Amino acid sequence: MERKAKILLIDDEPEFTLDLRSVLELNGFQVVAATSRELARKVTYSERPDLVILGTIVPRGDAFLLHQWLKSDRASKDVPLIVVDAPPEKRLLKGWLMQEGLQLQAEVYVSKPIECACLVPQIKKLLERAIMKIRVLVVDDHPVVREGICALLGLQKDIEVVGEAVDGQDAINKVQQLSPHVALMDIVMPVMSGLEATRRISKECPDTKVLILTQYDEEENMFVAKQVGAFGFVPKRAASSDLMIGIKAVSTGGYFPPSFAYVLANWPEGPQEKTQ
């Protein structure tokens, strides 16, 4: 199931919050709400929203202080921000000051009253720009392994599992059909090995980068994986965080263990692929 984008709505006006939440949820978004600066900070840490809508809160100036914090904190500084200012007649109570507005770092600025549905196209555009998903094909002949990997990747907001393959030949077919950014490839499989599949994919589908994921992490396999066109190598025993780092690195460049530089520098010519 595709993960719903999560929106943090910060506003202390119940009617506006209820209307906007209803519109957002009807459009498939997950909404979490906060009514104060302190609560918004806590929710930002606990919920990790994909987009923030910063409405009106009291006392006056708190919205600006929260804006400053959101744009300086490492966890939220790159999250898209929409600011909804108070209507002109209420700005002396809870609106932004002119000097605060000059320091605004929001992608969208609007003021109340506003038709909530008008925000939806802008939200979708911001999310599409912010959440550039890496399309991944998972290749392994063991169903339990594939299921575990897919479950792990499914928790990542910037990764989408587009398919699964059970052997090297199936991987080639799925790459041709699905055009993933990354093929997460086991080495030892029936019908065709992961290394032979990598060789074929690197020649026939160069837009798909292969990341080798295997329990056989001997130095020879690292070298051969690179030789046949793999862009990365992650042992199955590695932590899940290493897998995420590897996928993201391979999608834009390459990823091999730090020891791989030593392997390249010291490996004799003519290594052969291991089959056992």
* Main sheet: strands, sense, barrel: 5 strands, parallel
**Rg over C-alpha atoms, rounded to the nearest angstrom:** 24 Å
Compute the average pLDDT.
Answer: 87
Structural class: alpha/beta
CATH topology of the largest domain: Rossmann fold
* Count of helix runs: 12
Named CATH architecture of the largest domain: 3-Layer(aba) Sandwich
Can you count the beta strands? 10
Structure description:
This protein is an alpha/beta fold and 276 residues long. The chain has 2 domains: 6-130, Response regulator (Rossmann fold), CATH 3.40.50; 134-266, 3-Layer(aba) Sandwich (Rossmann fold). The protein is 42% helix and 18% strand. The chain has 12 helices and 10 strands. The chain has helices at 14-26, 37-47, 62-72, 91-94, 98-101, 119-130, 143-153, 168-178, 194-204, 219-227, 240-252, 260-266, and strands at residues 6-10, 30-34, 51-54, 81-85, 108-111, 134-139, 159-165, 182-185, 209-214, 232-235. It has a 5-stranded parallel sheet with strand order 2-1-3-4-5, sandwiched between helices. A 5-stranded parallel sheet has the order 7-6-8-9-10, sandwiched between helices. Helix 7 links the parallel strand 6 (134-139) and strand 7. It starts with 5 loop residues before the first strand and ends in a 10-residue tail after the last helix.
Key terms:
single chain, 276 residues, alpha/beta, Rossmann fold, 2 domains, five-stranded parallel β-sheet, 12 helices, disordered C terminus
Concise account of the structure shown:
The chain has 276 residues and is an alpha/beta fold.
